[in-house]
Amino acid sequence: MSLPVAEPANEDVAYFNQILKAGVEAGCSDVHIKVGTPASFRISRAFHSIDFVPTQVWMQSVIDGICPKHMKAGLEADRETDFSYSAPGVGRFRTNVFQALGRWCIVMRYIKSTVPTFEKLGLPEILKTVAESPRGIVLMAGTTGSGKSTTLAAMLEHLNNNFRKHIVTLEDPIEFVFEENQCLIEQRELNLDTMSFHRAMKSALREDPDVIMVGEMRDAVSFQTSISAADTGHTVISTMHTTSANSSVGRILEYFKQDERDTIRRQLAGTLRSVCCQRMVPTVDGGMRPALEIMINTITIKKAIEENQLGKLLPIIESSRKIAEVDGVTQWEDQGEGMMSFNQCIFNLLQQGIISEERAMEKASNPQQLKMWLDGIFTSSGGITG
Fold it and tell me: β-strand 136-141 against 272-282: which pairing, if any?
């Protein structure tokens, strides 16, 4: 992929914006730019390089031009920072600037201006019900690049289009910018609108919110503050980095000291509404589709958390579905609770012809179990079911 020759130094940001535009027009999700290496775009999970190799001088010029003034001192001191950048006529990007081997690097995630709908993303209807929770903690989990921020945005947009609520977001940085419809929405960015997450969270509780969206749960204080907010009747929606819904409770407890964990676990059992974990799976038509593991805090799930029987969470999730013929296709059918495991979701996507068996095996949490199901041997926590 070719681009025009770079202009003189005072035009570096303009040329940088041309790179971003080329990436967006090519359908990229991410832009990677670093000194001494051809700039590249991630398109459908694969990298595509372009005919431009940045120099340190060019990178410094670009960073000086795009980094917000109030963050430059921190970048100089820490050699890394996060912020959002809007390229004129192109769009918004979640931006991370850092150094590697003493050279500048920029990684940018393209944020689509329009929040995708549930239908376009292929999300299950249960997530609408989860988003509508009148109180409690709702977590969207997954690894970097799993699409969890987009799914969370779709959940908030569902509220915005259908309910009259007050939503306050605390983000680092802001990704999707919401246009108020039915909801009153304030979006606050760390280091721009507030200097402290903890101060902003405390203030949010005094701002008459119905829903508080926290960009990411990162430490014990984040979770403890969110538990307190949920205890007082608010809905707290956030993301976290875990690889499955059933393992998320244990991961949360790891943020706390050993002598605090029993108390936190009991508090979570009372305030947790749902944990949804997401993975992106390539489809047979060349697109991407989210596969989800969904855990709802049912009476059975709550009891397992209270009794510290975290190993029972996955079997409980799996036993909430039964194998059945749905429109002539063998699938794991929901029995009314809305839960499903990754393997059950991936099996259904495979049976529906949305993904290939190769991709299904790559993304399955338990490939051996998935292979048994494909061979017609259906097992769950309840034993042989078909």
Answer: parallel
Tell me the pLDDT band of 379, cut-offs 50, 70 and 90. Answer: low
Rounded distance, CA 112 to CA 128, Å?
21
What are the pLDDT digits (tens) for 192-242?
898 888 889 889 999 999 999 999 998 998 899 999 999 999 999 999 999
More confident site: 384 or 1: 1
Cα end-to-end distance, the chain, whole Å: 52
Q: Which of 32-41, 312-321, 329-338, 372-381 has the lowest mean pLDDT?
A: 372-381
Beta strand segments in the chain, E: 30-34, 37-43, 46-49, 80-87, 91-100, 103-111, 136-141, 166-171, 184-189, 211-214, 235-240, 272-282, 288-296, 321-326, 329-334, 379-380, 383-384
Residue ranges of the chain that CATH labels 3.40.50.300: 118-384
Q: What is the DSSP string of 315-373?
A: HHHHHTEEEEEETTEEEEEE-SS--B-HHHHHHHHHHTTSS-HHHHHHH-S-HHHHHHH
Of 3.20.20.100, 3.40.950.10, 3.30.470.20, 3.40.50.300, the CATH number of 118-384 is 3.40.50.300
Neighbours of 317 (CB within 10 A): 27
Domain 9-111 has CATH 3.90.550.10: no
- List every span in the chain annotated with CATH 3.30.450.90: 9-111
Extract the tokens encoding 237.
Answer: 């929606």
> What pTM value is reported for the model?
0.83
Structure tokens at 28: 């990229």
The residues pairing with 367 across neighbouring beta strands, listed in sequence order, are: none
